[in-house]
Amino acid sequence: MGLLDLLFGGSKKAAYLKELYTNGAVIIDVRTPEEFRSGHIKDSINIPLPSITQKIPSIKQKKKPVIAVCQSGGRSSMAVTALKNAGIEAYNGGGWSSLEKKLAHS
Prior knowledge:
By secondary structure, the chain is an alpha/beta fold. The protein has one domain (13-105): Oxidized Rhodanese, domain 1, CATH 3.40.250.10. Helices cover 48% and strands 16% of the residues. The protein contains six helices and four strands. It has a four-stranded parallel β-sheet with strand order 2-1-3-4, with helices on both faces.
């Protein structure tokens, strides 16, 4: 998969994220607890963006790639930057509801 496909989306990105998820990647939802309670991807973990750096040690212990999601992709992008800076393999899944549909249908 080309870097541009991963960065800018498309069906290749969706297929790659689904493959990561199928192979055990962890989905971290960085929205607020209230937003998370209103709906989320099954088995995703809620770690609000302001807490992400504090949770890095426990995320590293999972020894799995991370797919970060939020409402639209902005907060998850910031989370991915923090995770990558800490040496964690991380990908921006964008908006949680959009990714949920892609995981189910791609």
